[in-house]
Amino acid sequence: MKRKAVAVAFVQVLLVLAVVGALLVDSACANFMPLNIPPHSIEIMANGEVAGTDNIKRFGAVYEFTADIAGNIVVFCDNLTINGNGYSLIGKGESSGIFLEGRQNVTVKNLTVSNFERGVVYSYYRSVYDASADYSSDSDCRNNALIANNITNNRWGVYCYHVQNITFYGNTIANNSEIGISTFNSGEIHIVGNTFAENNVAVRFTNCQNSNVYGNNFIRNANQTSVDPESKSGLVFGWSTINWNKGQLGNFWSDYEGRDGNIDGVGDAPYVIDENNQDNYPLMLPHEASLSELAQESSPASLSADAMTLLLIIGSTALGACACTSLWGYFKKHKRGVKS
Question: Total structural domains in the chain?
Fold first, then answer.
């Protein structure tokens, strides 16, 4: 009886694991779906027209602010520039300031974006989710730029979700209560010549491949960076590859404690981020960026973790189910043998 009780308990545990695995598959699929288009008051429509405000004027492929705007913008077309002209896009502490889903070759510049849940969002678009697709290296949201903006006082300043080749240059990203820039399952994120000040986390990478971070100033952020936090907490996401230098140009870190013995403006010891990431050329003083530093490196797309994640979960679930079936058959057979 004792052996039977132990066996039944073991089978029950395996069944529970199988159910949890199935739930994780559902959760993973949900995590890899495109973000929902948020409630918004302004659209740049697929035909290029502007709806919802008179304070954005169109000049060909350039859309210029003519005053501050209180509202949210969703962009539905490609190959354009939004020029804030020094004005502001102001939210009510919710939704997204500018939302770009599946967009290409869109530049946003000279704009202050503040008081949103997420200041600027880049997301891929898929009408049907395909678990076998490599969305990190073949995103339809690609080749976009955020230049010389102020992204301040949001919850999340910028969120990049399954996107490719996004450039951030010359922005001030400050006082965002959670994260300045967050990237998830993306590639070729180029963060050059920006200032991150007093954010909770300045920059977070999760499974972000072939990306560059150099010539930036990280000033008094509660957490200067966070790389693959999910993998460190036991989940399967992770494996970011980031270059923290361009040649001998690194970043300025306000909490760097190293010395500059030869007085060349670069710290003698690396700035250590974690066991897999370090800035080998930390700057001793804040850096003033120049356009010549904005040289991008194109790297082959890396294998996405999406399909790997789902296969691991599904495989574990199937293994648990098979084990349950085998054990049930064994004990059933054993029970018949005892009776005989």
Answer: 2
Return the half-sphere exposure (C-beta side, CA atoms, 13 A cut-off) of residue 148. Answer: 14
The stretch 230-239 carries a mean pLDDT of 65
Per-residue CA distances from 13 to 2, 6, 326 (Å): 17, 11, 14
Instruction: With residue 202 as reference, give the H or E element that holds it.
Output: strand 201-209
* Distance separating alpha carbons of residues 95 and 73, to the nearest angstrom: 10
In tens, the pLDDT along 37-75 reads 998 999 999 999 999 999 999 999 999 999 999 999 999
The 3-state DSSP class for residue 68 equals coil
Whether residue 18 sits in one domain with residue 90: no
> In the prediction, which pLDDT does 125 show?
83
Low-confidence winner among 133-137, 143-147, 196-200, 315-319 (lowest mean pLDDT): 315-319
Give the distance, in angstroms, between the CA of residue 275 and the centroid of all CA atoms in the same chain. 21
Shared-domain flag, residues 209 and 265 = yes
Average pLDDT over residues 87-92: 98
Domain that includes residue 323, residue range: 1-31+306-340
Alpha carbons 277 and 308: distance in angstroms, whole number: 23
